[in-house]
Amino acid sequence: MISALSSIVPSLVSLALLAPVPSLPQDLEYQQEPKVLGRDAPGLQQWVMDLECTDLDGAKRRLSAAFGEKGLVVAMRDPECPLSKKYSPRLRVLEQEAREMGFGWLYVGMDSLEAARTDRDLHKLDGDYVFDPQGLIARELSAQTSTEVFVIDAGSTLVYRGMIDDQYGLGFARIAAERHYLVDALESVSAGQTVSAGATVAQGCKLDIEGPERSARPVTYHNRISRIVQNRCQSCHRPGEAAPFALMDYRQVKKRRSMIEWAIEDGIMPPWFAEPESGPWANDCSLTDSELRDFLAWIAEDAPEGEPSQAPLERTWVDGWTIGQPDLVVTIPKPFTVPAEGVVDYQYFYAQCDLPEDRWVKAVELRTTGGEVVHHALLFLEAPKKEGGGRRNRNFQTGGETFFASYAPGQPGITFEAGTGKLLPANSWLKFQMHYTVNGTETIDETSVGFVFADEPLIEVRTSSAINDGFTIPPQTFDYEVSSEFRFPESGRLVSLFPHTHVRGVRFACELVTPDGEVQDLLSLPFYDFNWQLNYRLANPVFVTPGTKLRATAWYDNTPENPANPNPNAAVRFGEQTWEEMMIAYVNWIPSAPVVIEASSPAPEKR
Ligand code: HEC
Fold first, then answer.
1. Residue 306 CA, ligand 1 centroid: distance in Å
2. Ligand 1 in reach of 264 Cβ (< 6 A)
3. Higher pLDDT, 536 or 604
4. What per-residue confidence (pLDDT) applies to 315?
5. What percentage of residues in the chain have a pLDDT greater than 90?
6. Does 117 score more than 50 pLDDT?
7. Which of 253, 257, 269 to mutate to test the pocket of ligand 1 (most atoms within 8 A of CB)?
8. Are 445 and 338 spatial neighbours (Cβ–Cβ below 8 Å)?
């Protein structure tokens, strides 16, 4: 690794020393790490009602009057809460920034009119300020604490709730904030993108609002279902994508309602297989409990349309690469024709990159042109046999680290976290594994991979594998269990897990076993479906110490009851063909960042 690194930046390596990772801060980090909340955070991605409120001069006004062209920020205030006090000067600055970006700003005081006025004057707060003694706004937003902020977009959808930034919390203060959640959210909304950290925990004084929860309202297409469909279905159910029909407007959703009812009630759609207790996962596309309940209630009520004025902003989808313009694109050597009917075995294509030197990859994406007929694509760094590649030359037991990227319907490309990425060695051979399904029309696919390179060396996101290639699944066996392990050689942080079997795999589980034997469940797929090769990306960091093991277990159904089983009378071993089996959990993880100590002269620009 060092040699690859030094070939790109000899100057940096010779100037810097890699010191051992300090052990203490990790525990501290645990405490202070801002928590991203689950996708079912109250009110998130829901329509916000246009409430009536009272300003500090006693005048009645509507929430909508406070909106800017881009939307509205609502900031809870409790002038007696220590954390609220600390954030006062920051809010004053943010308020200006938000306004310059086109957002309105609304402070909400609930304590007394007097206290709200003093707060406004003392901290010279310029934004609109309302007094809400009954907590109507707090209840509509399900506000929890005195430092919580909310971003509502111009379509009245709550798109962010939580902390302002990570500078102050209960029992800690940083010299400066490192993560600027509110500003990030405003920038995303301005750019028409979804907010990546939709909800975080805002530490502060509890608000303890009396009275009922959020007021109940009848579910309509425009006030609720449209937003669910945008967030959970349209990544695939839009023209040109993998799903067979579009769900883009009221008519299209209403027309399919009985099939939708069946598919969502049975958990077939959206395709997501992790048990709800595991995670949270950054790319979870499943319906939350409240979304499922509301979707079913809406169908039961005969799918009312509601008020078009309550419709969300139209979602913009990137046409083309989601990672931005790649620096290198490699396409399979010749287009593949997927027949109109039948079953297509896994196809393997090889292509060599024309790359004179090793490069660090900060984003990677597989793009297919076959739309509906491509069910998954996996990319490995591996040469064909005649070029010296093939299974015998891979060292599976040390991780067989050749897995590089994957495509599954609806999943965008991967942009690695800032400062991290993967290494693409000079003139690498790429192996594409393609899983095609027929759709009644002969279709041509020409899959490509795009790489965006970094100019500086990155901390490597490693792909290791917990693999077992020594099993035999007996004929006519149900629930045959095969396990594998990967031992982490050093401390680090898990990024994602990618379980992989072929057609006989029916269940899959991954857990962590610490050196002293403690077991932590990570991922459980009670109904593994080989049709959906998904990379489960952790939303919150999971740390590992040296010697911790990732233990994976897969269960196989080699009976005729398994409709995908090509031959229940075969004894099935490890192999790359569809009729053979696999047992791998790919583990993407980042070793703890080495601390770079700069030499005294001359200092490199980048740390
Ligand atoms: C990750 C991509 C993806 C997402 C997200 C997704 N679908 Fe699908 N959907 C598909 C594909 C692909 C099919 C075709 C059947 C298959 O391949 O399993 C499908 C089929 C369906 C079907 C037909 C039933 C069937 O199994 O053939 C319904 C109904 C459906 N989807 C509804 C939804 C709804 C409603 C949502 C959102 C709540 C949703 N889907 C989200 C990809 C997706």
1. 25
2. yes
3. 536
4. 87
5. 68
6. yes
7. 269
8. yes
